[in-house]
Write a structure and sequence with these properties.
binds iron/sulfur cluster; about 30% helix; single chain; mainly alpha
Length: about 80
């Protein structure tokens, strides 16, 4: 099931992507699509340093049965 791009999901995402070292180190909020990557697709930033991922802890991740993580770097696999 595709994750909806809603304000509610963005609020949840901010709690997990927000403090993520990959998010902070690469300043992903400054570049589209900013966050909620599982719904909006990966960041437009090209040379991202991978520093870890909080997605597996996230309520959106659990609710939509997502697997993997690092959705700022690559989209979730479709079921
Ligand atoms: S699964 Fe990851 S990208 Fe999606 S809302 Fe949660 S923290 Fe954000
Ligand atoms: S998708 Fe995962 S790796 Fe990327 S910023 Fe969010 S929590 Fe971090």
């Amino acid at each position: 099931m595709k994750v909806p791009d809603t304000p509610e999901n963005m609020e949840i995402c901010k709690r997990f992507c927000g403090p993520c070292p990959t998010f902070q180190e690469n300043k992903l909020m400054d570049i589209e699509p900013h966050a909620l990557f599982c719904a909006r697709g990966p960041t437009k930033k090209t040379d991202c340093a991978n520093k870890g991922c909080n997605c597996p802890e996230c309520e959106v991740f659990k609710k939509y049965g997502l697997t993997g993580g690092w959705f700022c770097l690559h989209p979730p696999k479709e079921e």
